[in-house]
Amino acid sequence: MQVILLHYGETNGTMSTGAPREIIVPHRQIPLEIPEGIAPTEFFNSPCNLRHLARANGLLRTREGFLLYRKAIGHSNLFDTSIIFDTSQKVLDPMGRPVRRDQLSREENLVFSRMTKVVFDFMLEKFPDPEQHLVFCGEASLDATWPLNKSGVPSIRMIHNHFMVFDKAQLAASPHAANDNPNLTDGGHNGLFLDYLSDVYLQFLDVLELEVLRPISPEKCKLAITGYPQGLPSWEVVGGAASLNRGQFWKEYDMVLRGFLDFYSALFALVASEDNRIPAEAAFPDRIEDILLFSDQFHQAARMLRLQVLEDPLFANQIRWKPAYKQLLYRDDEGRLIVTISQNSVGNAITELLGIVVKRVADEQAYAKEEGQLVEKLLELRARLIRYNLGTAIATPSWPHGRFVPPS
């Protein structure tokens, strides 16, 4: 059960109830046809489709294999782009591709972090007013036990970071999303974390030894328009955008992820087989024992999950036995940069973590009105990445010589 928190704040001079919003985002119909007998998510993860993605919407590729591309079916036409670690042409098994930063080499992680920094700086530069625009990026990982044809599975099973900007006036004017929207209920997992694990979850992550990231109350950094995120561990980036230029920030950003992975692994080891052993790959083994394995609350939640898995086959099929996460970096209403992290379950995309449900519709004319300004910004971003030695340009039918050409 999802708990909806209400928050009141001023938006463009009017009082707005903090509640999740559903916005409509037009897109162009993708020219590829899904072959008969294959599920859409299976097709989207195929090497054939991913090769087409780069040819039709690719902007830039690095020698390590990172691909910057325009989201053909995006979440926001104001600004929307993504970076993936495109291993699809050399790792043909979709389940064998890296899906988390901790699966990258040091060199790959450095490039991925630098690209993220440049894109985020670009968004802050182009959209400087926190009262007008919501700016954020987020990674959403999948684990190897997530069925490819499961509803809600992101269309690309590789590590990726998604960058978006939303107009706050549009969000405020959008209707409230239904409280039982499956993207918000998160298959019941988020309710479990909020209702039974919130205290021990916050306690476990609060002991991380951080310098650039400072814990902040979730109540202080949730968005007034949506009232989200809800009850998640959150950290303010001390020093703001300037700190993104420090390697220490990205080290701590990874520490937050490793702490979450330890928590997730310890919990679902208990659920799966009542295993109290500390995972061999744990980054913080002493804290797992000290805080988690001696917590009655932690064991109670694991027992509840285990009993539900035994009795409910639908719920059991939704469990992600290996760690799957959503980690966000966003600008809050006060202009602070905030880091937060949550589990990734069925249907819960990074937009919904901030209370935004995106309803994407095929509308050629509506999309054409917005496409030019979107692509111009993406091409300007590409030029900046190239200048910083972060990749080489890709020419597509829409920008053959570095300029936008509307489709005929």
The order of strands across the largest sheet is: 9-10-12-11-7-8-6-5-4-14
Quickly count the helices: 13
Low-confidence stretches: 1-16
Whole-number average pLDDT? Answer: 85
Largest sheet: 10 strands, antiparallel
CA-based gyration radius: 21 Å
Shape: globular
Strand content: 15-25%
Q: Would you give an account of this structure?
A:
- The protein has 13 helices and 14 strands.
- By secondary structure, the protein is α+β, with helices and mostly antiparallel strands.
- It has one domain (17-393).
- The strands form three sheets. The chain has a ten-stranded antiparallel beta sheet. A two-stranded antiparallel sheet has the order 1-2. A two-stranded parallel sheet has the order 3-13.
- A hairpin with a 2-residue loop joins strand 1 (8-11) and strand 2 (14-17).
- The radius of gyration is 21 Å and the shape is globular.
The gist of it:
The protein is of the alpha+beta class and 408 residues long. The chain has 13 helices and 14 strands. It has one domain.
What order do the helices and strands come in, and which of them pair?
Blueprint: E1 8-11, E2 14-17, E3 21-27, H1 40-44, H2 47-57, E4 58-61, E5 66-70, E6 79-85, H3 106-126, E7 133-140, E8 160-167, H4 168-173, H5 182-185, H6 189-206, E9 213-216, H7 218-221, E10 234-237, H8 247-273, H9 285-292, H10 296-311, H11 313-318, E11 325-331, E12 337-343, H12 350-353, E13 356-362, H13 364-387, E14 392-393
Parallel strand pairs: 3-13
Antiparallel strand pairs: 1-2, 4-5, 4-14, 5-6, 6-8, 7-8, 7-11, 9-10, 10-12, 11-12
Helix pairs in contact: 6-10, 8-10
